[in-house]
Design brief:
alpha+beta, Recoverin, domain 1, 3-stranded antiparallel sheet
């Protein structure tokens, strides 16, 4: 699936930039601790504003596609 198509189809109910709690929901309900670990290790690219992580939705989709390819 092309990244552009995935962006339109995946997570339509989430904003373009999500917070850690939303990230955890998007990844199937992982724990907040695991979400922070993914961000701190750089597995999912993010940025920090006012000491809070902000994660572009496209970066979550990219992370899932990498996982998809490695499972194949």
């Amino acid at each position: 699936m092309k990244q552009q198509d995935a962006y339109k189809l995946m997570f339509p109910n989430y904003p373009d930039v999500v917070n850690v709690e939303q990230l955890c929901e998007m990844l199937g309900g992982i724990s907040v601790k695991t979400g922070y670990r993914l961000l701190k290790t750089g597995a999912i690219k993010s940025f920090v504003i006012a000491r809070r992580y902000r994660i572009p939705k496209i970066n979550v989709i990219e992370y899932l596609e990498v996982g998809e390819k490695s499972d194949a």
